[in-house]
Amino acid sequence: MIPAAFDYTVAESADHAIQLLGEYGDEAKLLAGGHSLIPMMKYRLATPTQLIDVGRLDDLSYIRRENGHIAIGAMTKHAQLETSDVLAADCPMLQHVAALVGDPSVRHRGTLGGTLAHSDPASDLPAAVLALGGTIVAQGPNGTREIASSEFFTGYFESVLAEDEMIVEVKVPAGSAGWNYQKFNRRAQDWAIVGVAVADGGSGISLVNMGSTPIRATAAEEALAGGASIADAAALAAQDTDPPEDLNADGEYRAHLARVLTQRALEAANG
Amino acid sequence: MTATIGSRMLRKEDPKLLTGEGKYIDDIHAPGELWMGMVRSTMGHATITSIDTSEAMEMPGVHAVYTGEQLQEMGLWIAPLPCAWPVTEDMVNPPHFPVAVGEAKHVGEIVAVVLADSRYGAADAAEKVIVDYDSLPAVGSIEAAVAGDVMAHSDLESNKAFHWPLIPDPEGTEKAFAEAAHTVEARFVQQRLIPAPMEPRGCMAIPSPAGGDITFYSATQVPHILKVMIAATTGIAESKIRVIAPAVGGGFGGKLNVDADAILSVTLANHLGVPVRWTESRTEAAGSSHQGRGQIQYISAAADADGKITSVKVHLDADMGAYMMLITPGVPLLGSFLYTGVYDIPNLSFTCDGYFTNMTPTDAYRGAGRPEASYAIERIMDMMAHEIGITPEEIRARNYIAGGEAFENYDAASTLVFDSGHYRPAHDRALEMAKVADLRAEQARRRDAGEAKQLGIGMCTYVEICGLAPSRALGGLNYGAGGWEHATVRMLPTGKVEVVSGSTPHGQGHETAWSQIIADKMGVDPNDVEVLHSDTAKSPLGLDTYGSRSLAVGGVAIAMAADKVIEKAKLIAAHQFEAAPEDVEFEAGSFSVAGTPSKSVHIQELGFAAFAAHDLPDGMEPNLQEQVSFDPPNFAFPFGTHVAVVEIDTGTGGVELIDYVAVDDCGTQVNPLIVEGQVHGGIVQGAAQALFEVANYDEDANITNPSFMDYLVPSAAEMPSIQLDSTVTPSTSNPLGVKGVGEAGTIGSAAAVINAICDGLSPYGVTDMEMPATPQRVWQAINNSNGGAA
Question: Which CATH architecture has domain A180-269?
């Protein structure tokens, strides 16, 4: 529970943070809310020697309507998503999911950009952004680029972000049609054993903790688009997944949960 | 203010604790202190082939690194870590030194110690100590220990440490089974649990600059026992050791031990002449501090044609872990007397085999042996009801001691005498509060409709043994100490009352409860009472806090000492009144002469008279202070009925505890607010065993979930709003009529919750559910079912 020694620098801007990332290379980690990184450091599972604190970049904290989508600054905290009137009106799923992350102290520190960059397949918000078909805006030394959420996650705690890039914004389509989020866990503050996000009546279905990344339940989405019943589509929810095994669940049980929760989410989204 | 026995006085301790004024061990520092960093075994069982400390020694701020061999050569101790409860003459008790020498026997065992000038420095250096191991086959489960293919200790020929029987009437037991109309049998697993107090353990030893005295601060439940045991283990004279327990943030039995860290900090501080300290990390707490439970129970019951239980037969295989710690072997035996529960069962046969494994040692954890016993008998009662075809309520009603009527001094089959009980009122009240009749109708409706969420209703009527304990009874069990408690009460010259308590709080509220007892007895304001405790210099005699003993033994000692002060004060008052003592009355703190109430003196005014001693009765010693060592004639036997209501999601296997009712009887209540707090916490801890918690080990004896991410301590969000009521059946074991309530909730709740789950799943043919009832286990049970809808 005692982290190894590290240096700490407060970034004055996104440009400054990226410059520092360039200087320190793979010795550095960006620190946003810290509620994933700091525990890993305390267990010495992560031992960065340089922390660059981007959590104080208030100009990256906003939620606003733009042409047909909602733009959210990367340093927007879960608690701000949870209480946002803009999201309540135009993207209620994201608001709902944000309220299910961890406990209040986590939600008052954790940021949307941080949780996406951390790329934990068991986290709620990455899967929600994936189901919504969101876009991640990353800034590097050569400017910004937009990455589709379906292209973003590459493996356990891994994404396409380069070492000298940081997320500055997340865009999600505006819309409140037919959504639902099912989170199954044993304690309120825990990660999902399995979670299912349904957006737009089922055209976007994503799964939490069913593989090394948040994943789309493509077979179920396609079946539904092809006119299959909810029950028949949900039965395909775990197809082509390779769920992790742990003390809470083996793979077979996780696959069962994915099917049950997908059915419930689709029924609720279309109810 | 009036706050006497029975009033819901807010705790005197809380303003300090809630505003951060309370000083815990980690808040206390001494100049020049060195921090210990423990290098712990990463292997369940291994030969230590070499330890390279050179790199660690080069780290900044490091003063020393010691291996087990070096420490043995330094001769800092005269005996291994103590086991105070050798349960049989021939119990195997391998030496357990603070730091392993040659062979590591469990993950988390200390193999080397770093001393550095900061906590971080100690942790960094500990990581640089390079230990080479040759791995040995490990015993990672009780089953493996019993099978005996692998030895937990390489130099032993069996993993079995002892065999302990309690079979008062072997023929009677066999006859009952031979003649039974119904028999049921079951195997229950009491999984290992981590005590997990909010404040982890910690300590600091400060040597005095001259004279060789040591002040030892420890986050402990047992400063008095620690003092004796540190002296016996290190050879440092007892009179040179002062033990102080500062504010202690919970223990649940986890701080009832004499651990390696205590002996290391005291001896290294003494050796080096500097303060030596340690604060446990949460990972260390989870994987290295002693754990609770760890038993496999084999139980069978016999009943006659009327559903009257005639005999219970029990065998335990109990997991000692790698070593015997302070009371490791005695814990399962504390339950032995309770396997007949609240029932008038004439025959009991109990045997226990203790086994070594390569897991962290087990020892006391809230309830210690008694929740396990209560679980087994209350589960088997439900199974017997199912076998006979009657309800759980009915089988209990048919079997309660004295037919559910009030009784005193019941001779149980275990040979113990239950002080008092009256089981039916709590039973009736709990069923009424839970609205069980309505729940049964709703349960039937959901079953008929085939709904995904099914209801389950479970009950448990428990009895427990607390108020540890009559010293003679402990002697009979070969326990290495007595069970008395000591108290001193002083009326100071200023009229304030000073109470010295031998029992030591770690969150319970002793200062409040003792003040209420004094206020009730002496007619003083509870805020005029100061309670001294938790410091062996202020309170030299005591046996501390565990086994729900503080009130039933320590609180009674305080009441008795107060009575003696009043008696002496009465003689002074009579002298002042120039009246015969038998004519002096004592009422609400004031003495007066019968028939002349205008002439009176308050007991607080007599403090100064006794102190000045200008005009005391001839031959009377000055000062108003009295002390009592109270050794109770018997244990106290609290009881109660709990009802748990669960909603089972048959789609996911998820179980939600949606209602919980507890009607407890702990005899006379000194402070009902504190009683309710204890019951709430106890219920959650038992429900946590039923639903959430398990210290999980793999077959190589590695703990696989040593963090709060994977070891699931429930929060308020997982618990319903608990409904409480109580009945009051005074104990006959002490003059206050009090029993004890610290463990009662835990003793009743695990069985109630599992009974509820099995009830809810009975249409699926499910008859048992291993703890914790994880969603996956519940789903698998439903999946494996032979019949049923939904």
Answer: 2-Layer Sandwich (3.30)
